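Data deposition worksheet. Section B asks for the primary sequence of the deposited chain exactly as it was used as input, without tags or linkers unless they were present during the calculation. Section C holds the resulting structure in C-alpha cell form. Section D is free text for depositor observations; keep each observation to a single sentence. Incomplete worksheets are returned to the depositor.
Section A, Depositor: J.P.
Section B:
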Amino acid sequence: MYELLIFDWDGTIIDSEASIIQSMQAAARDLTIEEPVDAAVRNIIGLGLPEAIQMLFPAADGALVQAVRERYVHHFLSADPTRSSLFPGVRETLQRLSDEGFRLAVATGKSRRGLNRVLADTQLGGLFEVTKCADETASKPDPLMLEEILLITDLAADRAVMIGDTEYDLEMGQRARMDTVAVSYGAHELERLTRWNPVREIHAFAELESWLLSHRAG
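Section C:
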C-alpha cells in the first residue's frame, strides 16, 4: 500500500503546456534567436529551466542561457493565468485522497517562485506535505528530488509512488526505485512513458482515486 503520492505539476495537475510553449517562443523572439517549434518545447517540459534551455539551444553559452531564462520567466509570469487551468477532477480528487489518509507531495521542474505562485493561485498548497522544485535540488531525471522527499517524510521508496506525464518523471522514479504512474494526457506521448514500466496508466486524473483505493483494499 502506498502512503505517499508524489505528483509532477505541469502536465499532470495543471494544463500549462500552451503557456510554456508560448513563453519560450516569445523569449526566443526577444533575443532574436531561432524560435523553437511547439514539439521541441513540449519535449523539455518537466526539466529544470536551465537544463530545458540548454536542450532547446545546445549551442548557447552560459550568458545566453541566462538571458533566455529571464525572458521566459518574464513572459510566463505575465501570462494570462486563465490560460493555465487545473485538469478536470484534480481539485476534488486531491481533496478526497487527502481525506482518505494519503500523504501528498509535489516534485516539479518549476522554480520555487513559480510553484509558490501557482499553489497560491489554485489554493492547493495546504494539501501538500512536501514540495520540491528544480532550482532547489537536481533537475529530473536525477532521483535526488525524490530521495529528498523520502528523507523528509521518513518513508522507504516502496511506500511512495511518482505520478507524472513525462519520461523524465518516470525515469526519475525508476532511478529512485519507486513505482510510477504514467499520465497519458500531458506533454509526452504514452509510448514514451511505457518504456519506463509504470505500474499504471491513467487517462484522466480522477482514475487515480479508484485505482489507489482498490490497490489499498487489495
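Section D:
The chain has two domains: 4-15+84-217, 17-82.
The chain has a mean pLDDT of 93.
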